[in-house]
Every structure is written in structure tokens, then in C-alpha cells.
Design goal:
Distance between the termini: 52 Å
Number of strands: 14
Number of helices: 10
Bound molecules: flavin-adenine dinucleotide
Strand order of the largest sheet: 4-5-10-6-7
Helix content: 25-40%
Low-confidence stretches: none
Strand content: 25-35%
Largest sheet: 5 strands, antiparallel
Radius of gyration: 19 Å
């Protein structure tokens, strides 16, 4: 299929990009791995594509407060970076194939908001914040309030994802991501990222990000609270009981299957995160 006609602009500064994106029919393009197929199928018919390549939004900076990941950072760069929490690296390693990891960007994944996005689970579990820019100024949205539904976020159409800010994790913390993947696309059928802070064998705080079986990636808040009250001793039973019911459709058997698999991957991620936290 051939895309409908569009203009192409490659701004040199964020302000120029925001000017171009002020046109409500213009779209940003990052790695193009999600957008180009939509253009070819004519599901997206933008007036202009605003290429974000030259805006200096690429790279990972670390300071005392945590990590700032530029929106144009690719999965591959995240995997190769020093100091990224294990859950984020494992999310990125789970994405597609080498081509997708080389060109696909974190900002593109966050803006696209596929309900099965791997990285969404990781940034949810790590309590990240999405930093947006528009002509009205900068704005920050906690990841837990960002993903609203399939391919739908709290981002305005003219807002640019500029950075993902991942707070420093407390001492004694570990994180992990485990998923069961579709063998063809490698998208998560179900994936769980866990960040846990440990005192010896006991969980003192914990957050769980889920992806794949819900209309949008989400936190398993009831499970997190129960794991902390229980200290982690009865994690398997709590996960079976408290993982939110999948809502991506399918019959009762499929929903029950995905819920069970979600509890399994969640417990595996918890065990790995807890072991890393205890060794930290
Ligand atoms: C074969 C294949 C397999 C895949 N497998 C997986 C998988 O296993 N797991 C997984 O999670 N994902 C998978 N993906 C999806 C992949 O993660 C996304 O395509 C990619 O991350 C999107 O990033 P991009 O840079 O390519 O975004 P683009 O395709 O360039 O853009 C996607 C959307 O986001 C908007 N956008 C991009 N950047 C910004 C920004 N900074 N600010 C505002 N809006 C922006 C664009 O306008 C567009 O609407 C797969 C994709 C392919 C093609």
C-alpha cells in the first residue's frame, strides 16, 4: 500500500518541532516502526510528518534523582546502557526483533500506547513520569495516570513526549520483567514487571506493572498492598487472587488462562526482583 501524500519536516529545535506540531493534523515520527505501517494502510493520514531525529532527545542521563531517558532513545541503547534498572533492560530485550530494537524508540512506544507494550510495564513498576512539551509549556504525568486505553493516553495530540524520568530506587531494591510472548510478533500475551524493596527476605515496598491482557498497561495496586502486608510469603496465592481480571476480550477460558499466566509471570518477576533487591 502507498501512503496518502504528506509533507515532511525535520526541525532542528524543540520549539520548531512544537510549531510544526501545532497543526492538529501533523504527526511526530520517531523510529517509524508503528507509524509507517499505519501510513501504508492509510489508517493515519497526517498533513505532515515531523521528524524528531535532530532535537537532541536521544540518550540516558543519570543523576542523584534517577534516570532521564530521552524520548528518541532506542530499545537497543537502553539495553546497552549502564545503570538502567534490570526491569527496563529486560522489557527492552523482550521487544520484537533486532530491527525493531535498533530503530524503535521509548518515546514512540509510550506515545503509541500499544496495550501489549513491554516497556510500559517496566516504567509503571518503576514509578516513572512522562515529561511532555507543547506550545503551552512543559507538563509531567505519572505513568500510572498516562495509559488510558488501547492506543490512548493522557497526552494531548500536539504534545511531544520529551523524556521519561525514572526515579532512583531505594537501597535494597531490585526489579525484573517476565513475559509470555506471542511466538510470531514477540508481543506480550501477558507481561509483568516488578520493583521490590527488600529487608532481608521481607518485601517492604513493591510495585507491579502489567501488560498484554488489559485495555491499557496498568498497576496491580491491590496485589502490591497485599504483598507488602504479607511480606511476600504467600505471593503465589495473592497473585492468583488479586491480579486484575483481563479485559481484552476472548471467552471465559481465555480470560481465565491469561489471568493464571499473569499470576505466574508476576510471581517469577517478583522472585527475581526480590533476589536482586536482597543482594543489592
Ligand atoms: C515487527 C514488530 C514487532 C514488534 N514487537 C514488539 C514487542 O514485542 N513488544 C513491544 O512492546 N513492541 C513491539 N513492537 C512495537 C515497537 O515497540 C514500536 O513500534 C516502537 O517502539 C514505536 O516506536 P517508534 O519510535 O517506532 O515510533 P513511531 O512509529 O515513529 O511512532 C509511533 C506513534 O508515536 C508518535 N510519536 C513517536 N514519538 C513521539 C514523541 N516523542 N512524542 C509524541 N509522539 C510521538 C507518532 O506520531 C506515532 O503516532 C513491534 C513492532 C514491529 C514493527
Amino acid at each position: 500500500m502507498i501512503p496518502a501524500e504528506f509533507d515532511y519536516v525535520r526541525p532542528r529545535t524543540i520549539d520548531e518541532a512544537l510549531d510544526a506540531l501545532a497543526d492538529p493534523d501533523a504527526l511526530a515520527i520517531a523510529g517509524g516502526h508503528s507509524l509507517v505501517p499505519l501510513l501504508k494502510l492509510r489508517f493515519a493520514r497526517p498533513s505532515a510528518l515531523v521528524d524528531l531525529a535532530d532535537l537532541g532527545l536521544r540518550g540516558i542521563r543519570q543523576d542523584g534523582n534517577g534516570l532521564e531517558i530521552g524520548a528518541m532513545t532506542t530499545y537497543d541503547e537502553l539495553i546497552r546502557s549502564d545503570g538502567a534498572p534490570a526491569a527496563l533492560r529486560e522489557c527492552a530485550e523482550s521487544v520484537g526483533d533486532m530491527q525493531v530494537r535498533n530503530a524503535g524508540t521509548l518515546g514512540g512506544a509510550v506515545a503509541h500506547a500499544d496495550p501489549a507494550s513491554d516497556i510500559a510495564a517496566g516504567i509503571l513498576a518503576l514509578g516513572a513520569t512522562i515529561r511532555l512539551r507543547s506550545q503551552s509549556g512543559p507538563r509531567e504525568i505519572p505513568t500510572s495516570e498516562f495509559f488510558l486505553g488501547p492506543f490512548t493516553t493522557a497526552r494531548g495530540t500536539q504534545e511531544l513526549v520529551a523524556e521519561i524520568a525514572v526515579p532512583a530506587q531505594p537501597e535494597g531494591s531490585g526489579s525484573a520483567y517476565v513475559s509470555i510472548e506471542d511466538p510470531a510478533s514477540r508481543y506480550a500475551i501477558v507481561g509483568a514487571a516488578v520493583a521490590a524493596c527488600m529487608d532481608g527476605d521481607r518485601i517492604v515496598s513493591c510495585s507491579v506493572g502489567l501488560t498484554g491482557a488489559w485495555a491499557a498497561p496498568l498497576r496491580a495496586s491491590a496485589l502490591e498492598e497485599a504483598l507488602v502486608s504479607d511480606g511476600g510469603a504467600d505471593a503465589r496465592r495473592l497473585a492468583e487472587m488479586l491480579i486484575p481480571e483481563p479485559d481484552v476480550g476472548g471467552d471465559d477460558a481465555e480470560i481465565a488462562y491469561r489471568r493464571h499466566v499473569a499470576s505466574v509471570v508476576c510471581v517469577r518477576a517478583l522472585e527475581r526482583a526480590a533476589a536482586r533487591g536482597a543482594a543489592a
